[in-house]
Specification:
Layout (H helix, E strand, L loop, with lengths): L1 E6 L19 E2 L2 E2 L2 H9 L4 E6 L4 H7 L8 E6 L5 H9 L10 E6 L2 E3 L3 H11 L3 E7 L7 E2 L12 E2 L8 E10 H4 L10 H11 L4 E5 L4 E3 L3 H13 L15 E2 L4 E2 L4 E3 L3 E2 L4 E2 L4 E3 L2 E2 L4 E2 L4 E3 L2 E2 L4 E2 L4 E3 L2 E2 L4 E2 L4 E3 L3 E2 L4 E2 L5 E3 L3
Parallel strand pairs: 1-4, 1-6, 4-5, 8-12, 14-17, 15-18, 16-19, 17-20, 18-21, 19-22, 20-23, 21-24, 22-25, 23-26, 24-27, 25-28, 26-29, 27-30, 28-31
Antiparallel strand pairs: 2-3, 6-11, 7-13, 8-11, 9-10
Bound molecules: guanosine-5'-diphosphate-alpha-D-mannose (GDD) and magnesium ion (MG).
C-alpha cells in the first residue's frame, strides 16, 4: 500500500526550535518525531511513502534517504511554494503507482498516535468510502477540525478551527483517500483539505466516514505538546517500538551523563552526549543532544536546544532554549519564555516571564 506524508508546514508555533529544523524532524525520544508514525504505517502494511515537502525540503532526504533503513520506499516531491494540505496531496500523487479505487493513506507529519491504522483502512474498504478520517475526542476542539458524525459513522460536516465547534470529536490528521478522489483535487493553486476539499466532497454527497478511536493521540504543534509527547514516549504512555531504553521513566540517549546527586525524572529525555550537573533538578523536560544543565539548575517542562547551556542556579519553567544559546547563572525563565539560538543571557539573575 502507498501513503503520502504531509510535511511542508513551517511549524511557526514551535519557534525557535523550527528555525533550523522542520517540525516533523525535531528529535523525539532519539529519532525524528515523524519516525514514530512512519514505523506504525509500515507495520500496518504501507510499503511506499511519498513525502510532500516544502519548508527545508532537503533535510527530509538527508534524514531518511530512500527509506530502506526503515523497510520502506520513500520518494520526495517538493512544492516550490506551499500548496496547502490538499494541494500537497494532489501534487505528491504524481509519484503514486496505484490507480482507481485503491486506498491511499495520508498522514499529517506532526502527530503521535497509537490508533490502529490497519483497522482504519479496513473500515474504509468495508464502507466503500471516498475518504475515511481518523477522529478522536479532545477537551477543546477550537484548534482542530470539528467533525460530527451520524450513528452509522457518516461524516455530517467538517468545521475547521471554529470558535464554536459543533462537537469535540476532531479530525486526527490521518486519512484514507480513494485514489480517484485525489485526482479530482484542482492543480496549480493552493488547496486546503480542511476548508475546501472535505466540505466540497460532503456538499457533493460523497461518502466520508469517520473512524473513531480513543487511542493515545497528540498533535505536537506547540512547545507544551512537544514536552508532553516526549514525556509520554519516555514513560511508555505512547507506545513506540523505537523507545527501548527507558529507565525509571527517564530516557538517556547514547553518551548522556547525569551526576548521581542530580534529580532527573517525570519522563525527561537526556540527549546524546548531553550532561546534567550535580544537584540539578530536571523534570518532564527534553535536553537535545549535547545540551548542558549545570550544577544546581532547575529545569521543568522545558526544551533545551542542541548544545545549549543552562548555567548554575538558573530556573526554567515551560521555557524553550534555542540551539547553542546560553542562559547565564541565576536567570529565571518562566511561563513560556523562549530564547533564540545563539543568544547569551548574561548572569544577571533577571526574571524573564512570557506571562507579563
Ligand atoms: N506539503 C505541505 N504543504 N504540507 C503542509 C502544508 C503545505 O502547504 N501545510 C501544512 N502542511 C502539513 C504540516 O507540515 C503538517 O504535517 C500537516 O500538514 C498539518 O498542518 P498543521 O499546521 O500541523 O495543521 P494543524 O495542526 O493546525 O491542523 C490540522 O491537523 C489537526 C490535527 O492535528 C488540521 O488537519 C485539523 O483539521 C486537524 O484537527
Ligand atoms: Mg498540527
Amino acid at each position: 500500500m502507498e501513503a503520502i506524508l504531509l510535511v511542508g508546514g513551517k511549524g511557526t508555533r514551535l519557534r525557535p526550535l523550527t528555525l533550523s529544523t522542520p517540525k516533523p524532524l525535531l528529535p523525539m525520544a532519539g529519532v525524528p518525531l515523524l519516525e514514530h508514525q512512519l514505523i506504525r504505517a509500515r507495520d500496518a502494511g504501507v510499503r511506499r511513502i511519498v513525502f510532500a515537502t516544502s519548508y527545508r525540503a532537503s533535510m527530509f532526504a538527508e534524514a531518511f534517504g530512500d527509506g530502506h533503513r526503515l523497510g520502506l520506499e520513500i520518494i520526495y516531491v517538493t512544492e516550490d511554494e506551499p500548496l496547502g494540505t490538499a494541494g500537497a496531496i494532489r501534487n505528491a500523487s504524481s509519484a503514486l503507482t496505484c490507480e482507481g479505487d485503491a486506498p491511499v493513506l495520508i498522514l499529517n507529519g506532526d502527530i503521535l498516535s497509537g490508533h490502529d491504522i490497519a483497522a482504519q483502512i479496513t473500515a474504509h474498504e468495508k464502507a466503500a468510502a471516498a475518504v475515511t478520517l481518523h477522529l478522536t475526542l479532545v477537551d477543546d476542539a477550537r484548534r482542530y477540525g470539528s467533525v460530527p458524525t451520524a450513528p452509522d459513522g457518516r461524516v455530517l460536516a467538517f468545521v475547521e478551527k471554529s470558535a464554536n465547534p459543533p462537537t469535540n470529536q476532531v479530525n486526527a490528521g490521518c486519512y484514507v483517500f480513494r485514489r480517484s478522489v485525489i485526482d479530482e483535487i484542482p492543480t496549480g493553486r493552493p488547496v486546503s483539505a480542511e476548508y475546501e476539499t472535505f466540505p466540497g466532497l460532503l456538499a457533493a454527497g460523497e461518502p466520508i466516514i469517520g473512524h473513531v478511536e480513543a487511542a493515545y493521540w497528540l498533535d505536537v504543534g506547540t512547545p507544551a505538546a512537544f514536552v508532553r509527547g516526549a514525556r509520554d514516549l519516555a514513560l511508555g504512555a505512547m507506545p513506540s517500538s523505537v523507545v527501548t531504553t527507558h529507565e525509571h521513566g527517564v530516557l538517556l540517549l547514547a553518551g548522556a551523563s547525569v551526576e548521581p546527586s542530580a534529580q532527573v525524572g517525570g519522563g525527561t529525555t537526556v540527549g546524546a552526549r548531553a550532561r546534567v550537573g550535580a544537584a540539578a533538578q530536571v523534570e518532564s523536560s527534553v535536553l537535545f543532544d549535547e545540551a548542558v544543565v549545570e550544577p544546581g539548575a532547575h529545569v521543568v517542562r522545558s526544551v533545551i536546544g542542541r548544545g545549549a547551556r543552562v548555567c548554575t542556579g538558573a530556573v526554567l519553567e515551560d521555557a524553550v532554549i534555542g540551539d547553542g544559546a546560553t542562559v547565564g547563572a541565576g536567570n529565571e525563565l518562566i511561563g513560556g519564555a523562549r530564547v533564540w539560538p545563539g543568544i547569551d543571557l548574561p548572569a544577571t539573575a533577571v526574571r524573564f516571564s512570557a506571562d507579563v
